[in-house]
């Protein structure tokens, strides 16, 4: 067993408006179906166990790029749309936030009845992962959300989050059943959070003698599972700053979307008619679907797909969001019918961006980019939890999008 990663996040108490929740569910299902179709259930579970990928997914879905709310909102949206299609998709999402987290054992037994999996083993894994993060790792964070995602083959991922009310921070823990050996020694694939100083960590390699003396979570002999744990630390500041983003990668995406045209690339002809702003979002969504782990070290970059509900880095452009969903849904449905051309064209967006990065030269126009996105927000029906965007008195210059 290995914990795949963790994340430390500023604690947010905001809400997800209905207009965003509905779109998150639709986009989340389209992204999930794309990954499952292209790579299978193992890859979907592996990605969910990666704290950097998960944070990037939340950002591309329009949630605040660095907040703790990504965990509950993304998992809530995915559970809403995945479970009704679980038999077809091959994955099931159990648990949730608060009282819903306690329903995980019951829900897992129902999954076992449908799939023939060992329900008692799944429930045991669910309880042990929660016990480790709430008790064996005494870092000051008390769990309040627990999601257990399992495939019809029995592979699973856990995403759970704890709260530390004293400094208003949250810590998200990721687990993956791949190569399971021990729950009690270095079990996590990663933990996300700020350094809180020395803590009591009974799952540390050095705590072997203490573990044997004071607790027994598993009858298995503890074995070291991971030498490196993925740790994601999100800053407290709400604004997206240039230091939060890989400007070369972002600049390449803007160049591809706004300076080029689909007819310039034979691979993208099927996307002809998609506006430049939507092409920008589709390229970032394409990376979430097809990108390798190293592509998600700067989750803030993915907020340039659909902004954020609190207006950072800019309001959520509903027209762009809806066109992105429509394009992706169309590609998924056609792929199911054996027509994968459009799905391949979306995949090519990511591949073209990687190729273009090699010779890309960045200029320091990041603030100009933010200003243009905010000035143009009203054109795309931009919206935040505070209301709709209004036309700005300032004129936006076309050159402001250029980062090269």
Task: Classify the oligomer.
Answer: single chain
Overall number of strands: 12
What order do the SSEs take from the amino end to the carboxyl end, as H and E? EHHHHHEHHEEEEEEHEHHHEHHHEE
Distance between the termini: 45 Å
Total of helices: 14
Mean pLDDT, all residues: 85
Going by helix content, strand content and strand pairing, the class is: alpha+beta
% residues in beta strands? 5-15%
Give the helix level as a range of percent: 40-55%
Identify low-pLDDT runs: 213-228
Radius of gyration: 21 Å
Plain-language structure description:
The protein contains 14 helices and twelve strands. The protein has helices at residues 18-39, 41-48, 51-60, 69-82, 86-89, 104-115, 119-136, 208-214, 247-259, 276-290, 303-306, 318-336, 341-357, 366-375; strands at residues 2-10, 91-97, 137-138, 142-151, 156-164, 169-176, 190-192, 200-201, 231-233, 316-317, 382-384, 387-388. The strands form three sheets. Strands 1, 2, 4, 5, 6, 7 and 9 form a seven-stranded mixed beta sheet that branches. It has a three-stranded antiparallel beta sheet with strand order 10-11-12. A two-stranded antiparallel ribbon has the order 3-8. A hairpin with a 4-residue loop joins β4 (142-151) and β5. The longest helix is centred in the N-terminal third of the chain and has 22 residues, at 18-39. It is globular. The protein starts with a strand and ends in a 16-residue tail after the last strand.
């Amino acid at each position: 067993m290995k914990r795949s990663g963790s994340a430390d996040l500023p604690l947010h108490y905001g809400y997800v408006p209905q207009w965003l929740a509905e779109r998150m569910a639709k986009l989340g299902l389209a992204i999930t179906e794309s990954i499952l179709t292209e790579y299978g259930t193992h890859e979907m579970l592996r990605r969910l166990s990666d704290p950097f990928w998960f944070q990037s997914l939340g950002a591309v879905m329009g949630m605040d790029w660095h907040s703790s709310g990504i965990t509950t909102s993304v998992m809530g949206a995915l559970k809403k749309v995945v479970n009704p299609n679980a038999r077809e998709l091959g994955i099931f999402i159990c648990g949730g936030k608060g009282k819903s987290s306690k329903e995980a054992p019951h829900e897992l037994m129902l999954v076992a009845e449908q799939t023939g999996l060992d329900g008692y083993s799944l429930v045991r894994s669910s309880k042990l992962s929660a016990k480790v993060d709430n008790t064996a790792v005494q870092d000051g964070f008390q769990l309040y959300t627990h999601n257990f995602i399992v495939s019809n083959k029995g592979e699973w991922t856990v995403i759970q989050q704890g709260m530390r009310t004293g400094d208003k921070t949250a810590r998200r823990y990721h687990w993956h059943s791949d190569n399971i050996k021990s729950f009690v020694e270095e079990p996590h694939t990663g933990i996300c959070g700020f350094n809180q100083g020395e803590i009591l960590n009974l799952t540390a390699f050095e705590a072997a003698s203490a573990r044997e003396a004071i607790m027994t979570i598993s009858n298995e002999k503890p074995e070291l599972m991971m030498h490196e744990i993925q740790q994601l630390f999100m800053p407290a500041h709400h604004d997206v700053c240039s230091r939060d983003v890989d400007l070369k990668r972002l600049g390449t995406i803007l160049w591809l979307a706004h300076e080029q045209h689909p007819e310039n690339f034979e691979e993208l002809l099927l996307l002809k008619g998609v506006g430049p702003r939507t092409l920008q979002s589709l390229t970032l969504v394409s990376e979430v679907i097809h990108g390798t782990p190293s592509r998600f070290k700067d989750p803030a970059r993915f907020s340039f797909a659909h902004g954020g509900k609190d207006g950072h880095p800019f309001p959520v452009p509903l027209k762009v969001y809806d066109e992105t969903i429509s394009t992706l849904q169309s590609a998924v449905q056609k792929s199911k019918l054996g027509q994968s051309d459009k799905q391949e064209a979306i995949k090519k967006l990511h591949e073209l961006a990687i190729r273009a990065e090699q010779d890309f030269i960045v200029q320091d126009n990041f603030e100009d980019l933010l200003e243009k996105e905010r000035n143009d927000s009203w054109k795309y029906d931009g919206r935040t939890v505070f209301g709709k965007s209004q036309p700005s008195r300032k004129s936006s210059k076309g050159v402001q999008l250029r980062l090269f």
